[in-house]
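Anyone able to model this chain together with iron/sulfur cluster?
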Amino acid sequence: MTDNDPIALPEEAAPQHAASCKLCELANQRTRVIWGEGNPEGRIIMLLDNPGAREDREGRAFVCGTRATLQLGAAEAGLDMSDVYVTYVLKCRPIRKYDKEAARNTCRAHLLSQLEQKRPRLMICLGNVAVQAYFQDPEAEVKQLRGSWYNIGGLPTTVSYHPLAVRRRPGLMRLFVEDLRRVAVRSAETGTAAVATSGGLQPEKGS
Ligand code: SF4
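re: yes, here you go
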């Protein structure tokens, strides 16, 4: 794949209980709930902050800058996107000011239910919002945490920059590819099974 031929990944419809979710104030801003895209049974889960305008508009599949950069980075890293499922901290697109902490904490239940149901082997959080929300640490930053694996809730997790940040600052592409390559390598190893205990922000041994 090259930068010229990124594809729109197939979207997975939200389950019935979530499709009409009104648990936080974003229910009044969104057009619809966006559950995720890619391979619903993929062993790798990528976490972004929230859907954008592209996702919010149903039935107008095109490849946005985030996807194009993500797929370019994955191709460079040798990461097979057919083994990837992409989802969000927030399943609804915010368009106005909102209580970010409350929405992220509330929508976490949906993410945890996805992880429980899908049981991915690896996770990569893309961007500070995804990192802070998933690690439940408002101080966590990609810059400090990238380069290692962390055991978060029993799921081997690593971090990288948001694809849009990479698009805006092309100098980050080398680091982005490095981070995606770490995922590709671990995915290819036999020892990718999720570990059973939860942990904090201590890198796994040897990561
Ligand atoms: S952001 Fe999450 S919790 Fe809030 S309404 Fe949407 S699906 Fe529900």
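Residues 100-118 form the longest helix (19 residues).
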